Amino acid sequence: MSKIPQKDIYVFELGFGTGLNAFLSIIYGIEQNVRIYYETIELYPISKDVWSNLNYGNYKESNYRLFFENLHASEWDTEKFIKISENFYFKKHHSDFLNFNMENNYDVFYFDSFSPDKVPHLWNIEVFKNIYPKLNNNGILTTYCSKGIVKEALRQAGFSVKRIKGLNYKKHIINAVKVQH
Ligand SMILES: C[S@@+](CC[C@H](N)C(=O)[O-])C[C@H]1O[C@@H](n2cnc3c(N)ncnc32)[C@H](O)[C@@H]1O
What we know:
Oligomer: single chain
Largest sheet: 8 strands, mixed
Strand content: 25-35%
Number of helices: 5
Structural class: alpha/beta
Distance between the termini: 42 Å
Shape: globular
Strand order of the largest sheet: 3-4-2-1-5-6-8-7
Bound molecules: S-adenosylmethionine
Helix content: 10-25%
Number of strands: 8
Order of helices and strands: EHEHHEEEHEHEE
C-alpha cells in the first residue's frame, strides 16, 4: 500500500534531455516518501523513436517503465502539473530557458545544460543571478560541472559553493546553496 508523502519538494530542471533525472527523481520520491513537484524545460525534445528505445525504465522494477514513458508522452506546456504518481507531479516546458520566467520557488535546481564550453551563454553570472531569487532559503543548485569559472560565477551570483564527491567518472560535482542570513 502506498504511504502518504510526508513532505513536498519543488524541483526545476534545466535540460529535460532523455528524462533520466526526472525518472530517478520519481524513484527517489517513492523511496523517501516525499512528494515532488517537478518542472523541466527543454529546447530540443528528443523524438519518440529515441526515448522509446532507452532502457532506463527497466531500472530497479519493471513497473517503473510506465512512469518513464509517461514523462515523455505527457503534454508540453500545460498550465497545471500532471500527476505521474502519488509522489510525483510534473510540468514540461518546451522553451528556451533564456526567455523563460520561472513561476514557482524551488528547493532544488538541476542545472543540466551541457557544459560551459558548449553553451557559454547559459553558464554565466547573469543566468545564475536570475535563478538565485527563485530558490527557497537553503535551496540548492546542483551541477555536474565543477570548473573554476562556474564556481566563481555562482559565488558572484550569491551562492555558497560546495564541491562534493561525484559518481563514477565524475570526480566532483557542485552544490551551490542559497544561504540567507
Ligand atoms: C546534458 S543534457 C540534459 C540531460 C537530462 N537532464 C537527462 O536527464 O537526460 C542538456 C539538455 O539541455 C537542453 N538545452 C540546452 N540549451 C537549452 C536552453 N537554452 N533551454 C532549454 N534547454 C536547453 C539540450 O537540448 C539538452 O537536451
